[in-house]
Design goal:
This protein is α/β, with parallel strands linked by helices and 300 residues long. The chain contains 8 helices and 16 strands. It has an 8-stranded parallel sheet. A 4-stranded antiparallel sheet has the order 5-6-14-11, with no helix packed on it. It has a two-stranded antiparallel sheet with strand order 1-2.
Length: 300
């Protein structure tokens, strides 16, 4: 049974990774998950300088998922290069570094710094607010998405994945914009903006008022968007949004994803990534499929 997939020239042992921000940078889950079994480890977002993130409370449970407004808290590129990359290099897995920033210069500083580091791909989080454009996220305006993609590609030494936000009118427009900017792949979807109010405190559940909704509630939206993008652009897709089982992952693959990322499920089941991988194998066995690539985009 062949589980290997190729994304922008990078070969993964299997199509399962975890979603950025739900797994630390790997060490935090190392005692639960054999990192050698994952196709890749996607790190938490890394910026050019340490970010403290948003005030607490920053996470709120919902009936079918969770809201988070962490604010991309991270230790900054210096500590990340010194501590996290050497840890991950111990394992037979690909390393994808998620990069965040508040201006084009922020992103480029991190991308350039990672140029000579032993990482396999970069995932550019364009859901960050662009401070120079009044706080509108890079990923909510096609021109901004094109510009940041083009700028990153000019300096990146590794293949570039652009992570798309679902908080847009037309996801295919954003996918076309980053493809035109030179993106090697796309990952989607990031979280949907939501809100929860504590009716007994009569106040917002999150200090930030709004947060990103993730978990099973968003899976049908994510599958739809992956399908739309797969039928719009020619670059590979990493699909995510509410994946809890092998069956969930197969939906994304049939819709057109070459790989999948497990996110919120890691919070209530630290073994979720391995369970998803096992579930994919069982599905392939049951359906008589010998090569995972036969399933990618099979549903038209």
């Amino acid at each position: 049974m062949n589980m290997k997939v190729n994304i922008a020239g990078v070969e993964f042992n299997n199509p399962v990774m975890e979603a950025s921000g739900t797994f630390g940078s790997g060490a935090e889950f190392g005692e639960f998950v054999d990192l050698n079994k994952l196709g890749a480890v996607v790190t938490k977002g890394v910026a050019n300088v340490p970010w403290p993130g948003n005030p607490t409370p920053r996470i709120a449970e919902t009936s079918c998922g969770m809201l988070n407004a962490i604010g991309l808290q991270n230790p900054g590129i210096d500590l990340f290069v010194q501590r996290d990359i050497p840890f991950l290099k111990q394992y037979d897995t690909k390393i994808i570094v998620n990069v965040c920033g508040k201006s084009t210069e922020d992103y480029l500083e991190v991308v350039e710094r990672l140029g000579d580091e032993p990482v396999d791909m970069l995932e550019i989080n364009i859901s960050c607010p662009n401070v120079k454009e009044g706080g509108i996220a890079f990923g909510q305006d096609p021109k901004s998405a094109f510009a940041i993609t083009e700028a990153v590609k000019k300096v990146a030494k590794q293949p570039v994945i652009m992570k798309l936000s679902p908080n847009v009118t037309d996801i295919t427009e954003m996918a076309r914009a980053v493809e035109a900017g030179g993106a090697d792949a796309v990952s989607l979807i990031n979280t949907l903006t939501g809100m929860k109010i504590d009716i007994y405190k009569q106040d917002f559940a999150l200090a930030n008022k709004t947060g990103g909704l993730s978990g099973p509630a968003i899976k049908p939206i994510a599958v739809r968007m992956v399908y739309q993008v797969a039928n719009t652009v020619k670059i590979p897709i990493i699909g995510m949004g509410g994946i809890q089982s092998g069956e969930d992952a197969i939906e994304f693959i049939l819709a057109g994803a070459s790989a999948v990322a497990v996110g919120t499920a890691n919070f209530n089941n630290p073994f979720a990534t391995e369970h998803v991988l096992e579930g994919i194998g069982k599905y392939m066995e049951r359906m008589g499929v010998s090569d995972i690539n036969e399933l990618i985009g099979k549903v038209k």
